[in-house]
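Researcher: Here's my situation. A collaborator sent me these components and asked whether they could plausibly form a single complex. I don't have experimental data yet, so a predicted model of the whole assembly would be a useful starting point for our discussion.
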Amino acid sequence: MTSKKPLKKAGKNGGSDGGGSAGKISVTTLSEHIVEIISDSGEGAQRCGQSFGSIAARMGNGIWTTEIIPAEIRPPARSVAGASGNRIRIGSGYITNGGDQTDLVVAFNEQVLLGRVRDRELKPGCIILLESMWRKHPDLNISLAYAETHDRLVAAGYTVREIPMEQECQLLNADPKRGKNMFALGILCFIYSFDLQMARDQIALTFGKKEQSIIDANVKLLEAGKQWAQANLDFSFSIPATPAAQPQIVTNGNTALALGVMASGMELCAMYPITPATSASHYLSEVFEKVGGIVHQAEDEIAACAFAIGASYASKCTITITSGPGYSLKQEAIGLAVMAEIPLVVVNVQRGGPSTGQPTKVEQGDLMTAIFGSHGDAPKVVMAPATIEDCFYSVITARKIAEAFNMVVVILTDASLSSSQQPFTRPQFNEAWLAPPYDQSPVPEGARPYDWDATTGLARRFIPGQPGGMHTVTGLAHDRDSHVAYDPDINQESLRARSLKLAALQKTLTAPEIFGDAKGDLLVLGWGSTKGAIEEAVASLRAEGKKVSSIHLRFLQPMQPGIKEIMKRFKKVMTIETNWSDSPDEEIIDENNRRYSSMAILLRSRYLVDVDCWSEVRGQPVKPSTIRRVVLAKLNK
Amino acid sequence: MNCSATDCLLQMYDEQHDLEDYQSGVPRWCTGCGDNAILAAVQRLCRDEGLRPEKTVFVSGIGCSSRFPHYMKTYGFHGIHGRALPVAEGVKMARPDLTVFVNTGDGDCCSIGAAHWIHAIRYNMNLTVFLHDNQIYGLTKKQASPTSPIGTKSNTTPRGSYLDALNPLSVTLGVANASFVAQAVDWIPESLFEIVKAAYHHKGFSFVRILQRCPEWLPKSLDPWMQDPNSVQLLHHENALQISAGLSRVYKNQLRHDPLDMNRAREIASSHDVIPVGILYQNRDIPRYEETRQTGVLRTTATVRKGFEAELDKYSV
Ligand SMILES: Cc1ncc(C[n+]2csc(CCOP(=O)(O)OP(=O)(O)O)c2C)c(N)n1
Ligand code: SF4
Ligand SMILES: [Mg+2]
């Protein structure tokens, strides 16, 4: 889809003296493109990319932005593994995932670019806009490395365009180290035919808290970038937008989650910092107090969870937000909330595991821990948002369920959802989202703190302050009066009640929607952040006549009804996940020892259906093209 | 809408209470266990102060001592080992209108929950905390605890414990924002009660280490101190506790100590030859976390809607 036209050759120093060459510029219309901006960390490529994505969204385009984050906080400058930036998939219609390979990349040095080439993230022939200052660098090692890499990229068929970004920024007396990203943004605005006023507005918004002079300086750089591109490039693209009918907002998943906390009626979030969950708490710390909410940074995750349980016990369903290692630490306290039947919402923004694993990378490795974690039988609800919008609404749903059933609700998002941005319909605030006032009325004579309903296991809980409801909740086995009890019948009865609550919730759920036909050759099942990629792959195969459909599970525990019936209507069934599974092609792997992906295990054991699985743990969002390949192979097997 | 102004609710019934109003069940502690004395002192405090049972919460961890809430006819939270303090902090943060007590053992507080203890001191929330220090793990049947004196023979240290005991008073006095540190012994009920009462009245994290007998596992360990009244040093001051004539007749070893004097408090805390009993340190001016964190925003549907919409505006395209 990229322009096949050669790029106009500018003079070696690429000055902006060329004046307008608008007449020669060809504008190619595209339905979508993947653009990335990469630099050493701290050079502002992140901000450039985010702004680019936001402007595109303002134009009414579909976008999905993905952060490119180096594993280390400050990798050495010009290092192959040090790319920091943002990748934006921009399209005419709604975009559901980050897509496959990059069509156009802006790189502030050639080394970070090399890392992207090595990781096969760039499409063959991809357009590369490369900062050219390194060519004349006084350090011979650097200038030689640059020249060599440049030539190799050209030889490999990439469309490399050298741009003297630093030099041009210096003409504006700006600190080129700081302003280059806005210059690059200007270039991109030209290439993608963006409305420059929208870009100016975006800068004003991004730097909103800074002085006017800073905003002005950045706008000047933006304009200079655009002028330079206009004068020196002979191609540009247009991706016609089909604006949504409803007003849209653009956030990443962690921001959506935090907005959900604000709107859900919760008043407290207890947390301990951990990547990639922190940005949710950062944002919440900034804004929660404006609506009377508090973020408590506890001394560790155990304390954060216990604090949340204490607050929930005393009236207010509280949320605790964490990631893998912190989630492990919370296990004992989660069991306490299950046992004492105290509502609690726990968010696990999954990252690569086990142990410290890959803190910034995506994985769906915590599903089993979420369902079965904490010792003994500890039934809890597990939900998995599949989109950025879901991150918002799932908090509201989770609080409602937690309070209606006096249960722990675990929300499993992941590193991909946490930092990816996508537009969604601006939520219409609904009073019913908020929590009702907590009950302080006297408890009726004879009522007991755990009066488990014979059918549903549900019991009304008494909140401190309610006269006549005094009792001591305990993590020990207890009877209906909350008295410690080791009686065999009572233990049997209380475990039954806590388990039945899951069944009661399950009865309120509806069957998952089928993407594609209701029957066919292959059904693909997924959960969490892979939804967009799975559906894109399925749609493209269906367009070729393949009889493949997919369903995506929002609830992992309990599971929605109707799943077995849907599976039965397909010849083959498989899950696609980003957690570990043994490949059946391994020499020593067979049906007796193969370890399946988490959801495949759950489906196999629950429904007695021969569910196959495919998974990868590359720490990156799984690509639609990969899924296409896997699904085709399964269809042809 | 949620609003924590439950204090404003009308009190429509009699606030006179008897001891029985706070008593629940028959304590299952061993005969002679010091926890019984602590329970008696606390139930008396509740009655004398007219605490409303439904507005009072006892939070504990796990251990013999952590059974305490079950014997109170108030709200109670018998949680998990070591985590009583963060649970209590959550309760207090959500509901400043509740009176919150914490019962924790020497293993619960000073070992598995030590990190929470340090930070709870810093938060200085308005909690009254009783450290039931029997210098042993009671519930799990006699293992050395961090406060067991060196040489203590236990099931995990049959040849005597190896390490010097941790001093809970010194530790507490060493942490930023310590605001009330006292010591009591279970065998002098009058002073135990007075100290518990002073702790209750202190607004902030009131930490009372109570030397508690465990006749089951360490039957004679505190005998030397019990049998020699002079080994107990009663602290008094015109701004703190006064010693009654009755007590003075038995306990002649007395020390006038100003609880504002931190350096002196630290010296007293580290005495080896006597057990100081009374208030070592009190500072009423240290801010309480739950008050510091008050947002000043009265949560109504309107404020939430306004704040939420303002945020959505920022992300609108
Ligand atoms: C996580 C965990 N580890 C260990 C235990 C076992 N355990 C229960 S109580 C206790 C120690 C109790 O000692 P202490 O806190 O001094 O209370 P006491 O019984 O002496 O009052 C231990 C180790 C537990 N319940 N939970
Ligand atoms: S074992 Fe010790 S601490 Fe526990 S109840 Fe008996 S005497 Fe009290
Ligand atoms: Mg003990």
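Model: Some features of this prediction you could bring to your collaborator: Residues 1-8 of chain B have pLDDT under 50 and may be disordered. Chain B has one domain: 15-288.
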